[in-house]
Each structure stands twice: as structure tokens, then as C-alpha cells.
Amino acid sequence: MQSPPQRNDACTLVIMAKAPIPGTVKTRLAQKISVEAVTELYRCLLDDTISLARSLGTVEVAIMCPAADVEALTQLAHGAVHVVAQKGEGLAAGLSSVFAHFTPAGQQRVVAFNSDSPHLPASVLASAFAMLTEHDVVVGPTNDGGYYLVGAKAAHPTLFDGDGMGTKSALDALLARARKLQLSIGFTEPFYDIDVEGDLTQLATELRIAPARAPRTAVWLREWQRAIAELRTGTEDL
């Protein structure tokens, strides 16, 4: 019996995630907000990110995470999303694992997406896959010098080598390595992810107007802003 033909148009969106364990997620925000609140925020962001990914319809959705988080994330996703353990530690190892795992023989277009930009328009994710028909790599820049997505049609083992992950030079370092590998690069529109309190304020403003873009996160933000307002009122009454 012949095996079924390989699809050459398959698309996979892989969410880079961690289990929502206190003290391990959104640590920069935890400097301003309680660890418990930040953990619940991350859970909301991830829930909404999964919903965003699944809204693309024909795109396969998966999660790449540290091996220790597979069980927790499988439960959080209610078994609706394939969860894969990365090889190695850290984000660079996770990204390398994405393309090594999901691009056998270059048969797929694969996009790795962060877990804290559920407010991104779905059309931007669709455009990333479209760009991969003409480019080797696609990158979504963030306003702080990083990137919220990266896509490719094949594994490039050295693309994520070196330092700079999670810093203001992360995007420049990635682009330098891509050019050294002589890879053509496409760009989606710049966007922002949720790293500091100012990002939360911006997101809250946007979700007040359009809460359906990230409904679980919108509820959390309303409660967060209400708590801040009550705290300020109590301080003024002293």
C-alpha cells in the first residue's frame, strides 16, 4: 500500500508557552503586580492566544514548552492542542525545537508565536504564512527590539544561536544570523507584547473598545484597573 502524498501547503502555528506557575511567568510584571495576579494574567493571555490560533481554521495549532510543563499545558488546553516538549533549556532552544520538529524535509510553513499577544489581528498571522511562500523566514518585530513571531519552511540549526534572546538586541541578532545564512526575510507589521505595566495599560485601553479580541484577558484587565482605582481612592481618604 502506498503512503499518502505529503502536503506541501500545510501550515502550523506553534505557541511558545510555559505552564502558569507562580514565579516563572511574566517576571518583569511581577515587580509591580503580585505574583498571583501576574500568574492569572498569563493564564488569560495564553487561553486567548490559543483561541486566536484556533480561529485560523485550516492551520494546525501546537504548543512548544519545557518538558516539565507538558502535562499542565495539555490540561489547560483541554486536549484540543498538541503539546510538544522542547529539547534543551531556554527560548532559543525552544525555537530551534519548533522548526526541527515541525519542518521535516521542508514540507510545511511553520510560524512560532509568543503566548502574550492574543490581541494581534488574525490577519497578521495569516499574512505571515502567506509571506513564507516567497521568503525563507518571516519575522514579526516588537516595538522594544524583539519579535513576537518567527516563521520558516525548514530548520536552520544556527538561526537562534548566541545570546540576545529577550533583550533589545534580539531582533537585530536574529536578522544578522538570517542574513549570514543567506535567507530571504519577510516582515509582518510591528506589534507589542505584554512585558511591563505600560503594555498592560495600552492593552486595557484597546480591549475596553474591543473586548472580543481577547475576552478572558479583557475581564482580568477590568478587575485589575478596578482594584487600582479602589486602592488609589483608599489612599486619598487617609
Question: Which labels suit this protein?
Answer:
single chain, 238 residues, alpha/beta, Spore Coat Polysaccharide Biosynthesis Protein SpsA, Chain A, seven-stranded mixed β-sheet, 7 helices, 7 strands, 40% helix
Provide structural commentary.
- This protein is an alpha/beta fold.
- It has a single domain, classed as Spore Coat Polysaccharide Biosynthesis Protein SpsA, Chain A (Alpha-Beta Complex), CATH 3.90.550.
- It has seven helices and seven strands.
- It has helices at residues 35-54, 70-76, 90-102, 122-131, 170-180, 197-209, 215-236, and strands at 10-16, 60-65, 82-85, 108-114, 137-141, 147-152, 185-187.
- Strands 3-2-1-4-6-5-7 form a seven-stranded mixed β-sheet, sandwiched between helices.
- Helix 1 (35-54) packs antiparallel against helix 7 (215-236) and helix 6 crosses helix 7 (215-236).
- The longest helix has 22 residues, at 215-236.
- The radius of gyration is 19 Å and the shape is globular.
- The N and C termini lie far apart (80 Å).
- Residues 1-8 have low confidence and may be disordered.
Tell me the β content. 15-25%
Describe the largest sheet: 7 strands, mixed
Mean pLDDT: 89
Low-confidence stretches: 1-8
Total number of helices = 7
The coarse overall form would be globular
Q: What distance separates the N and C termini?
A: 80 Å
Taken together, the total number of domains comes to: 1
Number of separate strands: 7
Percent range of helical residues: 40-55%
* Rg from Cα: 19 Å
